[in-house]
Specification:
The complex is a heterodimer of chains A (about 60) and B (about 675). In chain A, about 40% of the residues lie in helices and about 0% in strands. With about 60 residues, chain A is an all-alpha fold. The longest helix of chain A is centred in the first third of the chain and has 25 residues. Chain A has one domain. Chain A has one helix and no strands. The termini of chain A are far apart. Chain B is of the alpha/beta class and about 675 residues long. Chain B folds into two domains: about 200 residues, 3-Layer(aba) Sandwich (Rossmann fold); about 425 residues, no CATH class. Chain B is built from 27 helices and ten strands. A six-stranded mixed beta sheet of chain B has the order 2-3-1-4-5-7, sandwiched between helices. In chain B, strands 6-8 form a two-stranded antiparallel ribbon. In chain B, strands 9-10 form a two-stranded antiparallel sheet. Chain B is globular, with a radius of gyration of 28 Å. In chain B, about 50% of the residues are buried. The chains are: A mainly alpha (about 60), B alpha/beta (about 675). At the A-B interface, α1 of A face α2, α7, α11, α15 and α19 of B.
């Protein structure tokens, strides 16, 4: 009985984590847990985008 | 309806955006905190009506001719996406400089309202502005606001909403000039500045002269001095580490670990009759691995709190000025200091902060060198090895940070040599914001926000990794229960990599190789995997003093089965080899070049391996030469020479290509 409880508990935990990771991935978040996942251009909500190009102009 | 918040850097745009939308975007008291566009709906408390109001926070810009990457985001948005209304946030303590950009925005024809922000500071400095007269001269509404206390926000939103669809006249219209002609551009800029200055003279009355010495100037005179400035910065950073890792973070971590371990043992007790393999999976793998990482949460959170205070008080810009002469010597500038200091908290924002650097080579160099500063995720690794192997844990931490700084210098010199830019002097201009007492509430919010992310990471990615590691350690390749861990899947996968570590630690340890591999997912995984592979390890560390618990030294050494020098070398490899995938992703986005990205990864791998090899080999030769594993040392030497040969070939090829170009 205890063995079954452990197996179910571990399976539930892992299932919840994998579900969370898949949901986050679908939302475009690539670096789960990174506090800057929203701001980082490498993992914005629009997916992987490039940082803007700099125009070297005379100010 | 979309309102764009735009203005000069450090004028309070993101503070206003956070207040209007309830967001918690990063704020700081230096120019260039926001490097990307953010947008969210404005809270209903600020307006009525059915129409949905969206606020767009844009990076700060000094003009519509962008100098840096983040300035071009602002220019492209206001020109290309035509927001319904622009809220131009103006630093009212620096009206002359701010209105230059305002006059350019007004030329776009988009209805604009000017928010004279930081008006509380003006009151303190007894500077008076006439918003009504300024409104007449600019041809748009002008309101006084204070972002930190939300003063004037209701009226600002109401006025902004009323402007939708209205026409905007420009008080100053630029002449048609050739933008590629610098003389014509300069002449036009001078004309615009003359117009702005005429407005400022009419609306601003200062009770003191700009040449008078303020308290801020007096503090700067002391703190930006060459000798005192560097000493003070060293003291500040020492206090950050000492407070976060020993004085405050340590005791709290000790309490937390004790509490978590009680829970772990309670679970073990309840499951006493279950199959040992399943108990190990749940208690040692899932729970033990997470405890090993969560135990260091207080250290990391205190560090985040202190970094947030530093970011808010205005000192970071001064650090850039103080260290500029030193960084110039290696082809970087003082502006590179900000990414490096931020990387102490997390390499991802540190790398992103490099976007504010104008020079492309310098920006790329800063982005690839920033991960050499040990970040918050590496604190658990440092604390674990310092506590397990070294009684004087304090110096280990200090040495790792000082080594990181040294490697940044050496790495910058190497980048200079490879790119052939070693003769070029770097320069930078930075705005010096006024000092202010840092917001404790703001720092607390920042600490909890980052702490939450740390917990989420521990409870998802790290927990999953630990479980996978535990399962891989419990079964053989034939998926039968492994009699010993050496016969497990994990051992089979990690063993080939352990040969790479042979010259670095003197033994073939697949456990150490496995921990480093999982560390590329998240650096905290190094500790989690070690705790799973070496069961009982986490119980031997007293996190308060960061030393081994009394009488457990031999036990810890026995568990790791490596010498102190090997432990230091292994720690160095984990600190200076490529960072986690998140940081690598940020680096890839910032350097915008596959050649630079892979060059950076190669540099980090080479530096991590070489430093680790030198620490182990030289350290062993000094402390106990008879224990040096000669074949391993020779193997490592060959690897280091091979990497040096690659670097020399790259330099030679670069030189040849430049010579060809010159001809």
């Amino acid at each position: 009985m205890e063995n079954a409880i452990i197996l179910v508990t571990v399976a539930l935990i892992l299932g919840a984590i994998i579900g969370y990771l898949i949901r986050s991935h679908r939302r475009g978040k690539r670096c789960i847990g990174c506090p800057y996942a929203k701001e980082c251009t490498a993992c914005s909500t629009d997916g992987c985008v490039e940082a803007p190009k700099t125009e070297e102009k005379e100010k | 309806m979309r309102i764009a918040l735009s203005g000069n850097p450090n004028s309070g745009k993101t503070t206003m955006y956070n207040a209007l939308t309830g967001s918690s975007e990063k704020v700081g008291n230096w120019a260039g905190v926001t490097v990307d566009k953010n947008e969210r709906p404005v809270k209903r408390a600020f307006y009525t009506g059915d129409e949905r109001l969206i606020a767009v926070d844009l990076p700060g810009a000094y003009s519509m001719s962008p100098f840096t990457g983040e300035e071009s985001i602002t220019r492209d948005y206001v020109r290309g996406e035509s927001p319904d209304v622009i809220v131009n946030i103006v630093d009212s303590t620096n009206l002359g400089r701010s209105l230059f950009f305002t006059t350019q925005l007004l030329e776009l024809g988009i209805p604009t309202v000017v928010a004279l922000n930081k008006s509380d500071l003006n009151r303190k400095q007894r500077t008076s502005l006439d918003p009504n007269r300024l409104s007449e001269l600019l041809g748009c509404p002008v309101l006084s606001t204070v972002s930190t206390s939300q003063e004037g926000f209701l009226e600002l939103v109401s006025v902004a909403m009323s402007l939708k669809g209205k026409e905007q006249r420009a008080p100053f219209v630029a002449k048609e000039i050739d933008p590629s002609d610098p003389d014509a551009v300069r002449a036009e800029d001078r004309r615009r500045f003359a117009f702005v200055n005429s407005i400022v003279r009419e609306v601003e009355q200062k009770s003191h002269r700009a040449s008078e010495f303020s308290l801020s100037d007096r503090i700067d005179l002391l703190l930006t001095g060459r000798g005192v400035g560097i000493l003070f910065f060293s003291l500040v950073m020492f206090l950050v580490f000492q407070i976060s890792q020993v004085w405050v973070g340590g005791p709290i971590a000790d309490l937390l670990v004790g509490f978590l371990e009680q829970g772990q043992e309670a679970v073990r007790g309840v499951l006493s009759t279950a199959h040992p393999l399943l108990v190990a999976l749940l208690v040692d793998g899932v729970i033990g691995g997470v405890i090993a990482v969560l135990g260091f949460l207080p250290l990391v959170m205190v560090m985040y709190f202190l970094i947030a205070l530093l970011e808010d008080c205005g000192y970071l810009s001064r650090v850039a000025v103080v260290l500029d002469p030193i960084f110039k010597k290696v082809g970087l500038s003082g502006k590179s200091v900000i990414p490096f200091v931020i990387s102490v908290g997390c390499a991802v924002p540190g790398i992103m902060a490099s976007r504010t650097i104008k020079d492309e080579r310098e920006r790329r160099a800063a982005a690839m060198l920033a991960p050499f500063m040990p970040c918050g995720a590496k604190i658990p690794v440092i604390a674990l090895f310092a506590g397990a192997f070294f009684d004087g844990a304090g110096w280990v931490s200090t040495v790792t940070y000082l080594s990181g700084i040294l490697l940044i210098f050496l790495g910058a010199l190497l980048v200079n040599r490879v790119t052939g830019n070693y003769k070029k002097r770097s320069y930078f201009i930075i705005e010096m914001p006024a000092y202010k007492f840092p917001s404790i509430w703001g720092a607390t919010k920042s600490m909890f926000s980052r702490g939450k992310s740390y917990v989420v990471k521990a409870a998802t990615v790290i927990l999953l990794c630990n479980t996978v590691v535990q399962i891989m350690q419990s079964f053989t390749l034939a998926f039968a229960v492994a009699e010993t861990a050496d016969a497990s899947i994990l051992a089979a996968v990690a063993k080939p990599f352990s040969y790479l570590f042979y010259p670095l630690v003197g033994v073939l340890s697949w456990q150490l190789a496995a921990a480093t591999l999982t560390g590329f997912i998240a650096k905290e995984n190094v500790v989690g995997t070690l705790a799973v592979c070496f069961v009982g390890l986490e119980n031997l560390i007293d996190t308060e003093e960061l030393v081994l618990l009394e009488g457990s030294g031999a036990e810890a050494a026995g568990i790791f089965a490596i010498t102190k020098v090997a432990a230091l070398a292994y720690l160095m490899f984990n600190l200076y080899s490529p960072p986690c995938f998140a940081a690598l992703g940020a680096m890839n986005a910032e350097v915008k070049s596959a050649k630079w990205f892979w060059g950076g990864v190669g540099l980090q791998l080479g530096v991590g391996y070489t430093v680790s090899y030198l620490v182990y080999t030289i350290g062993t030769l000094i402390i106990s030469p008879e224990t040096l594993n000669v074949p391993a040392a020779l193997l490592g030497l060959a690897a280091v020479f091979a990497m040096a040969a690659v670097v020399l070939t790259v330099i030679r090829r670069g030189d040849l290509a430049r010579e060809m170009q010159a001809k």
